[in-house]
Task: inverse folding
């Protein structure tokens, strides 16, 4: 199956009353999308792993859309707003209560100490360290390796 590269313009995407960000609007049908480089900047994904990370979140059968804009002549991978919502839910799926229980703190302490981006990063580091420990690495070395990987 060939992927058709579509032309898009940069547009403000509004979700609800409070959330708005710069995204893409396809010229052919007016639908909105979010480019993978934009997802990188929003959620601190490494740019060279971003497409792989997004695809891992959305599942093996997921297929990216391709868009070309006036900002860059090369086509970029992008996802629909519905898929973007799935990515956001996957990244921030933990409730504040669950995070507070894991970190033994109150919601106010959690909010005043960590941003949403830093909480996602902490969760990724913890997950990476646990996978390394499961493979037989010493816990301290695994933790150091995970921190270095995400630094």
Result:
């Amino acid at each position: 199956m060939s992927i058709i590269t579509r032309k898009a313009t940069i547009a403000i995407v509004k979700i609800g009353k409070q959330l708005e960000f710069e995204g893409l609007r396809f010229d052919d049908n007016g639908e909105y999308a979010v480019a993978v480089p934009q997802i990188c900047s929003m959620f601190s994904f490494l740019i060279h792993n971003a497409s792989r990370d997004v695809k891992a979140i959305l599942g093996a059968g997921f297929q990216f859309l391709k868009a070309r804009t006036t900002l860059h002549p090369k086509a970029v991978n992008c996802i629909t707003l519905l898929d973007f919502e799935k990515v956001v839910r996957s990244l921030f799926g933990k409730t504040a209560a669950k995070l507070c229980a894991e970190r033994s703190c109150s919601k106010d302490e959690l909010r005043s100490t960590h941003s949403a981006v830093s909480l996602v990063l902490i969760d990724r580091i913890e997950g990476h360290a646990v996978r390394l420990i499961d493979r037989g690495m010493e816990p301290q070395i695994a933790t150091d390796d995970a921190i270095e990987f995400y630094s």
Remarks:
- Strands lie at 5-15, 19-26, 32-35, 65-68, 76-80.
- The mean pLDDT is 80.
- The chain has two domains: 5-91, 96-149.
